Amino acid sequence: MEGRIGVTSENLFPIIKKFLYSDHDIFLREIVSNAVDASQKLKTLASVGSYNGNVEDQKVWVKLDKEAGTITVSDNGIGMTEEEVNKYINQIAFSGANEFLEKYKKDANAIIGHFGLGFYSSFMVSDKVEVITKSYQEGSKAVKWSCNGSPEYTMEEVDKEEVGTDIVMFINDDSKEFLEENRISELLNKYCKFLPVPVLFGKKKEWKGEEYVDTDEDNQINDVAPAWTRKPADLKDEDYHNFYHQLYPMADEPLFNIHLNVDYPFNLTGILYFPKIKNTIEVQKNKIQLYSNQVFVTDSVEGIVPEFLTLLHGVLDSPDIPLNVSRSYLQSDSNVKKISSHITKKVADRLQEIFKENREDFEQKWDDLKMFIVYGMLTDEKFYERALKFFLLGNTDGKKFTWEEYEDLIKENQTDKDNKLVYLYANHHEDQYSFIEAAKEKGYDVLMMEDPLSTHLLNLLEQKYPEKRFVRVDADVAEKLIPKEDDDKEKLSLEEKNELSPVFQAIVPNGKGNFIVDFEDLGESANPMVITQNEFMRRMKDMSQLQAGMSMYGDLPDSYNLVVNIGHPLVKQVLADKDASLNAELEKINQEITNEQNEKEALNKLREGKKDEEVPQEEKDKMKELDDKITSLEADRRSKLEAFGRGNQLANQLVDLALLANNMLRGSDLNKFVKRSIELIK
């Protein structure tokens, strides 16, 4: 018998071959899945008494014949009669072939989910496909259907003893890779690892001599009852452990898991594992595997599940997920969106449950969980709302607090004069040790927020709570981290600051950022000098490392404040040395500057009420001469102060000590410091 496949358009097969699936290797999943369906259908018929044969030994066989250039997938399932072959294969999609082809040719990925064209994926890799099948129905005769990829086919009766179907694919020249045993093993392991009917491919191998050889035992590639298909009550911790390592043989132990088992308002099963996520944002692609009735759909779940959940590992399975390899199609599917939202809720509920059941254990695992939870809070509003119940803040003493607990701890002592609650934090305990200790000496508590997402989280929390703010301990001296009432400590005038600033500005290192010198009376017991970093600029630079569009901040040099403690005896000694060394010279220069400024002021009075063109050129020239002289005198004064600073060992030592406390003294500068320290000790 010869005939034409029930579609009038000549461009069906080119579309199938080129556009039906985004990955050509999907053909094996489709053909094996069809074979599994045929086996399952026969079991269903037997269970209702419509078939009396043996269904206890249902299997699917995948056979490779490299010499003949064929891949054969066989099953002992329901089989087809000649009429059924005509209905299910020759009449593609039963009816309306032209209509559906026209409708979906621009979005061919959508064909699969709607029209069940899995069988036709075989033509993506085949020059010819043969179907040899025998129906379970009594008296049925076996038929052989053959097609070379054109709308024409042949069908004839053949001899076949067993009920079931063989699909024989004659692989085309462009797809010879699929005739390699390793390639087929790879695809079966990827797509068919958990199908509910045994899938056999070749024989198991054992090592003999210097190579692997076949044994007599069939090689079953799949686990027909994976852990997620079983009831949680029937599983032990060991079962979850073993299944995790079945999925990820080389992975570290997970922290814990969530077993999903939902039947309303949609069907969803699965097991999600929480891996250990360290203080780097790891690339976590291909960790969650998506299945539909144990048939692999995809392992690229970005955009299908919320972004933060892609950090988890495990399996999700739902018959409501269309069996389609187009991720864009999956992302727009309404069921997928509902499932995604539900998983977020279940994950948050499970974390809250673990926190309440065993807080001690939760706290021990917090450092490994923190990155995941913070990422979720930053990217998913609903998760943020739920996560506040179990999100933990850890301080420098290693204690953990919920958001509410920590507010109660600090609100009495860490509320500033504007009634804002100030959360102090550090992101490196060793590097910021002196700042942490200075804050603690004032009775403040300091949080540890060392992971790379902390800056983003702080910004989010400040947006949510305008009455709270976060300040890193090295953003200012301890006395000014949480401003209380205005103090009455000694202050320098602007003129005094301008005279002292060059002494220390000359010493700060070049190439390590911009240093602004400031002066505060911190008392005799505080350090003589402290280096702080502006909170806003530092936070913007931190964010620029992780957030596109903020590179302008990342390109800016670091900005530091060198705070000179004018209340410290050693600083007073430097200032006394400066006076002893330069007082006479500076007084003379300052007097000259004063004289020039007085003359300039007198000229300015003469110009009052006059337009520029009414001022004689002689006066203009005199004004410029005075400006140039004042500038020259100020430069001379600055030059002498800088020279004094560079030559004063004590001033250099104090600046280097401040740099050393901030882990900013290295290389030749550190070597100079050590040599100078030895000289000063002698």
Automatic annotation (TrEMBL):
Alphabetized Pfam families for the sequence: HATPase_c_3, HSP90
Ubl conjugation found in the keyword field: no
PANTHER family per UniProt: HEAT SHOCK PROTEIN 90 FAMILY MEMBER
Domain Histidine kinase/HSP90-like ATPase: 23-175
NCBIfam families, sorted: PRK05218.1
The gene coding this protein: htpG
Chaperone is among the record's keywords: yes
Family under the similarity heading: Belongs to the heat shock protein 90 family.
Record key words, sorted: ATP-binding, Chaperone, Coiled coil, Cytoplasm, Nucleotide-binding, Stress response
Residues annotated to bind ATP: 30, 34, 75, 80, 95-96, 165, 327
Listed InterPro entries: HATPase_C_sf, HATPase_dom, Heat_shock_protein_90_CS, Hsp90_fam, Hsp90_N, Ribosomal_Su5_D2-typ_SF
One MF annotation (Gene Ontology) recorded for this entry: ATP hydrolysis activity
UniProt name for this protein: Chaperone protein HtpG
Coiled-coil region(s): 572-643
